[in-house]
Amino acid sequence: MAFAAFATAEVQPQAPKKRSRIALFLLLPGILYLVLFFLTPLISLVLTSLQAPSEFGDIGQFDYAFNWQNYVTVVETYLPHILRSFGYALTATVFALLFSYPLAYFIGVKARRWPLLQSLMLVLVIAPFFISFLLRTLAWKQLLSDESFVITSLKALSLMAPDAHFTGTPFAVIFGLTYNFIPFMTLPLYTTLERLDTRYLEAGSDLYAGPFTVFRKITVPLSMPGIVAGTLLTFIPAAGDYVNASRDFLGGPDTQMMGNVIEANFLVLLNYPAAAALSIILMAAILVLVSIYVKRSGTEDLL
Amino acid sequence: MSVREFAERGADLELVGIQKRFPGFTAIEELNLTIPAGSFFALLGPSGCGKTTTLRLVAGLEEPTTGRILIGGKDVTDTKSHERPVNTVFQSYALFPHMTVIENVAFGLKRRRIGDALGKAHEALRLVELDHLAQRKPQQLSGGQQQRVALARAIVNRPALLLLDEPLGALDLKLRRQMQLELKSIQEEVGLTFLHVTHDQEEAMTMADTVAVMNKGAIEQMGAPEQLYELPRTSFVANFLGQSNLFTGQVVSTTSSAISVDAAGTRIVVPTSRAQRHQGEVTVGVRPEKVTLHTESPGEMPDRNLLGPGRIIDVSFSGVSTQYIVDIPGGGAVVVFAQNVGYGPVAVVGAEVWVSWAVDHGFGLADEPGETGRFPADDSTTSIAVQRREALISELEEH
Predict the structure, then answer these.
(1) In this structure, is residue A110 part of a structural domain?
(2) pLDDT tens figures, A159-188
(3) Interface of chain A toward chain B, CB-CB under 8 angstroms
(4) How far is Cα of residue A254 from the mean position of the Cα atoms in its chain?
(5) What is the pTM of this model?
(6) Interchain contact B80–A (C-beta under 8 A)
(7) Does A130 map to a domain?
(8) Can you give the residue ranges of every domain in chain B?
(9) Which of A294, B1, B96, B164 is most buried, by CB atoms within 10 Å?
């Protein structure tokens, strides 16, 4: 028996090699999928963004070229939309964090003693996912339209000017974004706060830190992975969102974000290179902002 | 006392009529305790006896159901934990994982805005010999090192009262001894009051000036370690703090200096001054190391209690001493510790022996005999070991 043990020990060095080939094999479908449905469209998008209008073509006909001026043109034309996109997304992320953190803290820390309440509240957070977010946003449009009960009551109480609107304003768009992304913020926050060891909080208060200092110095740093994950899950899709800001939903002519402009260029103006260039700018900007953010928040070792 | 400055000296701790109930059970029945300033006080008891709850009440991490807590004569019952001049070394260390070792140690100083926080923190780390690891994160340290950081993080604040929740549990024996001495010297040097919670009776006895033995949410007995060991008041103390041989019987005669107890036909004499109860059914006892083993009948001796003959049912050799378990007909098992001054064990299993001890070494307990029972549950580790050994021997014989 003892000799058999030595014999197998000799064979072992070969095992990892074999295993890595199997791993590669298992990864193949995923790699193929990414190449087909991510890399190819991305290359196509880059090529499209550099196209020039066909010389004698109709509207919407373009030829392959290296027309980098497309980028300059779209930035010049749509700078307000670009800035607005990131402004709205940032504001909505901050609001979502402000609403979600206390909610996640309550579910994850305070409600630990009542598991039933904890699960019930989690279900309530997830429940909106059971209805399409288009329907929900449309419902908000109904609820907050000029003729709605809420707005007429506010006007009757003189809390709103008689000629004021809610839908179509930046406030309505940010409201919609915040509302739609709260679950994406709450869930990652909940998962980190649920694992938060309250003994650290006790140790903090034993070391002369008041409740606010304990929160600032201990709870927040320890829940940083959740904060980073939640803000990314909110900020990235919110910056490219085109539903809330759309005229058909909560937005108006003055609230158009990058998503709406891209949509208009692709589907209405048929200016594909402009739409592609805008998409790439949006992607690159998000990539840069997010990497700075992850670097600055210093959560690499906590993640 | 303001928490903004270092404590000049330790403070008294007074617990008055403390009771703590949790939903479903009572952790502390009724606790009255005064710990004088500058003393090293150990709260000793098995797990679940309420000792950690007591510590948490003093630290302000729990609120008592009734009763008051006074530190340095000031009522702190309604004071929040961060405003109490108290620091705790937690059993789980609770070192902040997102801070380096030095940041952990300086945390309390910075909260109190004490000048040169980092310098003082380094000094505290030097004391526990970990200054070279100041820039590490706690999870990069071993269990023992983390424990020392936790210690440094508490003592650097020079609190009037330091609470220690089994702080030396994870250390190996050598480091444990070293830290025990270190703690003791820090305590003496600064004159702080230490409240040490432990289930390790040896640690409690070597370190503390005063030991309180806690059981089921109440203090059974309190006093200097020697006093507690010499004169346990209850069978719980007699068995939790070291081992004891206990005998229950009726008091048959009383003189001004001694009482005689009839334990299953044998007369056991105990000095009146060392017995808590002087009539009726009582429990008396003696420590195993005070008992002498005789291989021949020594005959009646005027100032010694003699039991026997009995048979040795177990001998275990541990270097310095040998432990014999002698089965005395009617008297139950008697444990004897004998120093190996000659050559090793003097008797073997099955030998007929007598045991005796000086009358002055016996003690009488205050328990109602009904509580102890004549045959208390035999769940000491010794008898479990004996049973295992017997089982093993019989198993080997079968093969």
Answers:
(1) yes
(2) 888 888 888 899 999 999 999 999 999 999
(3) 197, 199-200, 202-210, 213-214, 217-218, 221-222, 224, 301-302
(4) 23
(5) 0.79
(6) yes
(7) yes
(8) 13-227, 231-398
(9) B164
